[in-house]
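User: Hey, my collaborator sent me this sequence without any context and asked if I could get a structure. I don't really work with proteins. Can you help?
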Amino acid sequence: MDPTEDVRQALAEWAEAVRAADAERAVAGRDVDVVLFDVVPPAVVAGRAAYRASWELFWEAQGRGQFDVSALTVVAGEDVAFAYGLITIGAPGSEGFPIRLTVGLRRDGDRWLVQHEHHSPPPG
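Assistant: No problem. I've predicted the 3D structure and written it out in structure-token form, which is a compact way to encode the shape of the chain:
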């Protein structure tokens, strides 16, 4: 198993779940104590239930749409990894806009769980 590819796959599955507005799958790869620093209030979201609620608000506001991860860099050891890149977010048919993504992950058996997730708009 290549930890870098496993992390890439976990993040690809998460992005697909967000595009599909599938709350169960979007939350499945998050640690029970996940902490999200988000673009919109509340600035700090802690725990799976709050993480799920933040996505429900996102889908309510935007619906299903563009959520594409690009320029992803992954650095992974055996038990800990981090990744950073861009997410292009937008309503269906729109050009979308970039958001920066950084995640810290830990291995739990044979899967990777996001412990910390950070979204931020690029400067300018």
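In plain terms: The chain has one domain: 3-120. You can pass these tokens on to your collaborator as they are.
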